[in-house]
Design goal:
Strand order of the largest sheet of chain B: 1-3-2
Number of strands of chain B: 3
Oligomer: heterodimer
Largest interface: A-B, 101 and 126 residues
Order of helices and strands of chain B: HHHHEEEHHHHHHHHHHH
Largest sheet of chain A: 5 strands, antiparallel
Number of helices of chain B: 15
CATH architecture of the largest domain in chain A: Roll
Shape of chain B: globular
Number of strands of chain A: 7
CATH class of the largest domain in chain A: Mainly Beta
Strand content of chain B: under 5%
Helix content of chain A: 25-40%
Largest sheet of chain B: 3 strands, mixed
Structural class of chain B: mainly alpha
Order of helices and strands of chain A: HEEEEEEEHHHH
Number of helices of chain A: 5
Distance between the termini of chain A: 60 Å
Radius of gyration of chain A: 23 Å
Chain lengths: 172, 328
């Protein structure tokens, strides 16, 4: 009986934990008035126009688009029009998880590494040449053939893409 | 016509020099010294050959590695070099002796040194989710090298300090050292904002040319923007770069009219850092699991641990479950 009760509590605790994560979805704030679209395409149907400052939860990302739920509406926004995080726009950052939108790997809370300064200006000023490390770096260098081989294995083909012009257009 | 212009130029030059001489005499300035300083300044501003550039880059990279050593994971370093070299092949300077490194510090940052040296921190690597995001970061840094942004900054700096008379026309080593300055402080000075925006725009294109999802860099900028200015691990990054939100705004303006001509690209999985990769030479070493290990400590203190699983109960990873429910 005690065993069953413990097991029940344990499973419930985990479900609560999961529910907490689900509720604590990645918040987004609109940086400008934007059209929420039915598909991640500029010419897809407009679901609704959301005013600047609207908030919602990010569900997925595809290319330049992010799927969000705002109130009862769900659709796709041009990702440059939003900022992620509960304190988006305040520049203060937020303790949330970016894993769902940007892939499964990022699970570190945004606030978790605050306080870990790492390399600072003084470290850079004091830096002294380390010959053995630079020689080690030389040994890691890739040849052209190795680079090409990696690209082939990952299904990466070189594409012709011109540099971006200076012209600007209206935002989606 | 040309002769007339030359004659006018000579007259003007004589007048200027005459003026300088009169002023100098009046103020008791050593003219020879003045011209010597001017010559040194011109040397510093003028030609920095590709060979000089590589020597500068190697010196700076070596100093940087003195401050933060390589992450002790040969397979990871080789991987980053292959990804980086593949992107660099798509640039206007494919023949540089490109070197890429992950350095052992919790800071979130990346650096480019002249001549083809690119380093990103483990703190940054740890927040990446895909090879396309890594490609975006590396392509941004490659953009700095291609455009010789740091060389330009160091040339200006050396020209301004030519009065110290350290720079010598016939001593390239001294000139290079003068241009680099103290330690690896060149990375603490940063570049013009316009150079960072330009590298962002180049980064998107080079990643796309290499076959990656061109929005990898945009994803990373969103991550940085979300972490906010209060994050100490990005203190140096924020000091030397425009705020990520501003970079996103600039890039958005530039990309908007070009969305249709960017290929979708691919997002291969990112190679994880091996266990035990922390370099014992690192001044502030990370635990084996990297920044995440540090991250876990305060979280564990703050939040109670889930009850241990009774024997025989199914193992349940809440994050895995969550990913299953919410997978794209």
């Amino acid at each position: 009986m005690l065993f069953l009760a413990k097991r029940c509590c344990s499973v419930m605790a985990l479900y609560c934990l999961c529910a907490g994560f689900a509720v604590h979805a990645e918040p987004v704030t609109l940086e400008r008035e934007s059209v929420l679209r039915s598909e991640p395409l500029i010419d897809s149907a407009a679901v609704v126009t959301l005013p600047n400052g609207s908030t919602g939860d990010a569900l997925a990302r595809q290319g330049a688009w992010v799927q969000i739920r705002s109130g009862s509406a769900t659709g796709w926004l041009y990702s440059f029009n939003v900022r992620f995080g509960a304190a988006a726009g305040s520049g203060e950052g937020a303790g949330f998880v970016l894993g769902r939108v940007f892939g499964p790997r990022q699970r570190v809370s945004v606030t978790s590494t605050i306080g870990i300064r790492g390399l600072d200006e003084e470290d850079l000023k004091q830096a002294r040449f380390d010959g053995s490390q630079i020689q080690q770096l030389d040994r890691y260098a890739a040849t052209r053939e190795q680079a090409r081989s990696h690209a082939d294995a990952s299904g990466l083909g070189a594409a012709r893409v011109d540099y971006l012009g200076e012209s600007s257009g209206s935002r989606p | 016509m040309n002769l007339t212009r030359t004659a006018i130029a000579r007259v003007l030059l004589a007048a200027v020099l005459g003026g300088v001489a009169v002023t100098a005499k009046a103020q008791n300035i050593d003219l020879n010294r003045l011209f010597s300083i001017g010559r040194e300044a011109l040397t510093a501003v003028a030609g920095v050959s590709e060979q000089d550039e590589q020597a500068m880059g190697r010196e700076i990279a070596g100093r940087m590695l003195g401050a933060a050593p390589l992450v002790n994971d040969a397979a990871l370093q080789a991987y980053v070099n292959r990804v980086g070299r593949w992107i660099a092949e798509q640039s206007e300077r494919p023949d540089l002796p490109w070197r890429f490194a992950v350095i052992d510090t919790a800071s979130i940052n990346a650096f480019a040194a002249p001549g083809g040296y690119v380093m990103l921190t483990r703190g940054l690597y740890d927040i990446l989710d895909s090879e396309a995001q890594l490609a975006g970061v590396l392509a941004h840094e490659i953009g700095h090298v291609v455009k010789r942004h740091h060389v330009t900054v160091m040339q200006k700096s050396a020209a301004l300090s030519a009065g110290s008379q350290i720079a010598q026309r016939d001593n390239r080593s001294a000139m290079i050292n003068n241009m680099i300055g103290t330690g690896a402080e060149v990375f603490a000075r940063g570049l013009d904002k316009s150079a960072e925006y330009e590298a962002d725009a180049i980064g998107v294109v080079l990643a796309a040319r290499a076959g990656y999802n061109p929005f990898g860099l945009v994803d990373v900028l969103h991550k940085l923007a979300a972490r906010g200015a209060g994050d100490n691990s990005m203190a140096l990054l924020f000091k030397t770069h425009p705020l990520p939100g501003d970079r996103l705004a600039q890039l958005g303006e530039l990309l908007t009219p070009n969305l249709a001509r960017l290929p979708a690209g691919r997002e291969p999985d990112l190679r994880p850092v091996a266990a035990g990769a922390a370099n014992p030479r690192a001044g502030r070493p990370l635990p084996a699991e990297g920044a995440r290990g540090l991250a876990a400590q305060p979280a564990q203190q703050a939040a109670p641990q889930p009850a241990p699983q009774p024997q025989g109960a199914p193992a349940l990873d809440p994050m895995q479950l969550l990913r299953g429910i919410l997978s794209r």
